[in-house]
Design a protein that fits this description.
- The structure is a single chain.
- By secondary structure, this protein is of the alpha/beta class.
- Helices cover about 40% and strands about 15% of the residues.
- It has helices at about 15-30, 50-65, 75, 85-95, 105-115, 130-145, 160-170, 190-195, 225-235, 240-245, 265-270, 275-294; strands spanning about 40-45, 65-70, 95-100, 120-125, 150-155, 175-180, 200, 210-215, 250-255.
- Helix 4 crosses helix 5 (about 105-115).
- The chain is globular and about 55 Å long.
Length: about 290
């Protein structure tokens, strides 16, 4: 990955993805303590509010020896004050890499074309690959490895997290079921690439799952759809009855979560929940990503 962009999970070969997860584990255990960012600066560009992404990247960059420069939407105005390509072209003259959390994936692609320094996707409306790197690391820890034939059931909106989970499924071969209303399923062009993904509107599809995963019903930028989405997703709330369809399954959510909406508190805060492990592993997975690129 040296010097490469990281825009989607599919940017990594299956071998590269596994190697990155191995490095994440070694960083977390303290087995390795690299300093590849010594003397380097990384720009963190945020169009969307952030807590986990910002803190995990800032801490990770510091631990790898680098410094970070945080830029909010009001300061930069990607697509309003300046085109995404101009922003990236200028930043590339100052910094050694760009981490961008944006609304429009097209802006990310434009930044990557314009920058001669690595660009990392910290989230767009299309995909969330850094989150899914952390998710895979968490599954590896919780399930005793990624080589066994395990099943992930995602319940809810076929959003950017689902997009990246599907790409991970294509790379690693685990079973994946997406359980959602027809109008909120992943894009047809993505599903055409992944015929092995089980699509269903029936909660019975979670049976046999080792992991049940959900996310908010209304993502940032779609607030005007909130009432309609609540009506559509009400039957898909993850509660004890749904989890009983997959006895022993672990629960995952990328956070922030809304107790009583997409998930009940008894599940989110219960003994089978991995949500805090997922949040912590953002740090280690992103450190591994930065170490591999730099």
């Amino acid at each position: 990955m040296r010097g490469s962009d990281f825009l989607d999970i599919c940017d990594l070969s299956p071998q590269g993805l596994r190697a990155l997860l191995d490095l994440s584990r070694d960083l977390k255990s303290g087995k390795v303590r690299p300093r590849p960012l010594a003397g380097r600066s990384i720009a963190l560009l945020f169009q969307k509010p952030s807590m986990r992404t910002r803190v995990s990247f800032e801490v990770g960059i510091e631990r790898l020896g680098g410094t970070s420069i945080v830029l909010g939407d009001a300061e930069v105005g990607v697509g309003r004050r300046e085109p995404a390509g101009d922003v990236a072209g200028v930043l590339a003259r100052y910094v050694d890499g760009i981490v961008a959390r944006l609304f429009d994936h097209k802006d990310l692609l434009e930044m990557a074309r314009a920058s001669n320094k690595p660009v990392i996707n910290a989230l767009t409306d299309k995909s969330h690959p850094c989150q899914v790197l952390a998710d895979l690391m968490t599954m590896d820890e919780a399930l005793g490895g990624l080589d066994r034939n395990f099943k992930v059931a995602f319940v809810g909106d076929g959003n950017n997290v689902v997009y990246s989970l599907i790409e991970a499924h294509l790379s690693l071969g685990f079973q994946l079921a997406v359980v959602s209303p027809p109008a909120y399923r992943p894009a047809p062009e993505l599903l055409a690439r992944a015929p092995g993904v089980q699509l269903s509107g029936d909660l019975e599809a979670v049976r046999g799952a080792d992991v049940v995963y959900t996310d908010v019903w209304t993502s940032m930028g779609r607030e005007s759809e909130a009432a309609e989405r609540r009506a559509q997703f009400e039957p898909y709330r993850v509660d004890a009855a749904l989890m009983a369809r997959a006895p022993g399954a672990r629960f995952m959510h990328c956070l922030p979560a809304h107790r009583g909406e997409e998930v009940e508190a008894e599940v989110l805060d219960g003994p089978n929940s991995l949500v805090l492990d997922q949040a912590e592993n953002r740090l280690w997975a992103q450190m591994a990503l930065l170490a591999a690129i730099f």
